[in-house]
Amino acid sequence: MSKVLVIGAGGVGSVAVHKMAMNAPIFSEIALASRTKAKCDAIAESVLARTGQTITTHAIDADDVPATVALIRQLEPKLVVNLALPYQDLHIMDACLEVGVNYMDTANYEPREEAKFEYKWQWAYHDRFKEAGLMALLGSGFDPGVTSVFATWLKKHKLDTIRTLDILDCNGGDHGQPFATNFNPEINIREVTAPARHWSAGKWVETPAMAIKQEFAFEGVGPKNMYLMYHEELESLSKHLPEIERIRFWMTFGDAYIQHLTVLQNVGMTRIDPVMYEGREIVPLQFLKAVLPEPSSLGATTKGKTNIGDIATGFKDSEERTFYIYQICDHEEAYAETGNQAVSYTTGVPAMIGAALMLTGVWSGEGVFNIEQLDPDPYMDMLNSQGLPWQVKELGGPLGF
Ligand code: NDP
User: What residues flank ligand 1, with Cβ below 6 Å?
Assistant: First the structure.
């Protein structure tokens, strides 16, 4: 019996739980817990209607460690999958350690008051997980997640060493709203407004947010402007694949998104420090989140595709070669399958796959692991069979920028 507890009932949690229910032989029992139980119940109803599987639902504030410990003790899962927000990571890891159960997530821990995107807090748990004989797997979403697995697969099968790696994240979807974010607005805007950083010749190079842009023609989407950004997998990839001389992360944004964000930033609405309003403290970005559309509400109207992948240049038998590996996901097809758009789908499916590989023991270990430390092959096979088929092609040479 492989029981899993998923914490977090947003778009990503919803997709993951639907896909787990579609893989009932691996996930024999599924429990879903979140702060708002009504959201878990709505997901459970959809799962029952779409798959015929019943899941249990529970209310939990995962920042309350003793309450989370009690819930884990009551449910006795083999694995806790954290699909709440990055602020909860350490609290859920603490609870897992106390009970003695494995842990997995899709986003690194963030302190609320500062946008950091650093792994140091979670890496500091390595010895405790190791001593307890437990495994924590960090970042099993799409990016981080699949993009790191793509890099290790290229290294295993196509290149002897990787010299440069570019991660290209394109969302060509249109949700019909003047301004909305495709996943949690607070986390998304923190990410986008942070200074850009990339890894080059053994050190970080910092440039202002959204200052470096390139046009790129994405298969299935067309030409799009993409912007150099910092993204958390750059830190773990530069640690675990130290041979890579340069690692960059690019994300596409439309002109309307940039215009709205620029205004919001200029007027102070993206600030994450508290300000006084009518005698009480409010955080402008949290207030902004409250007035923006819920990402999960965008699914029904979103059309178009995502295309996310890696371009790696390196050497094979002393010859320089460049490969592009990518996955195209259709928003409407994702919505038809699970009731969620492609950004949630491309994160929730890899979350299910990481959990499946841990539960079946295909991936095992003691300590805290990033996904690129594990064998990419079983993960790549499941991407193909679970709704995220990928393609790889050789390019004529390295990127010209
Ligand atoms: P949502 O905001 O849609 O959902 C988050 C869920 O977590 C909500 O159900 C929320 O409950 C719940 N939650 C928040 N705080 C707590 C708490 N203290 N205790 C219990 N539950 C809580 O986010 P998404 O589904 O879009 O994203 C989920 C995670 O996936 C995030 O960490 C995000 O950063 C990550 N992500 C990773 C990606 C990747 O490729 N690696 C891509 C996209 C997202 P309530 O509704 O009550 O607030």
Answer: 7-13, 34-36, 39, 60-63, 83-86, 88, 106-107, 141-145, 183-184, 187, 295-296, 347
- What's the rounded Cα separation, in Å, for the pair 306 and 322? 22
Q: Locate the ligand 1 atom nearest the alpha carbon of residue 182 and give its number.
A: 26
Domain ranges of the chain: 3-138, 146-342+389-395
- The string of pLDDT tens digits covering residues 367-387 is 999 999 999 999 999 999 999
What CATH number has the domain spanning 3-138?
3.40.50.720
10 CA to centre of ligand 1 in angstroms: 5
Tally DSSP H helices, then E strands, for the chain: 14, 18
The tens digit of pLDDT for each residue in 255-271 reads 899 899 999 999 999 99
Contact between residue 400 and residue 216 where contact means Cβ atoms under 8 Å apart: no
Check: CB of residue 370 under 8 Å from CB of residue 139: yes
> 0.90 cut: is pTM over it?
yes
333 C-alpha to ligand 1 centroid (Å): 22
- How is domain 146-342+389-395 classified at the architecture level of CATH? 2-Layer Sandwich (3.30)
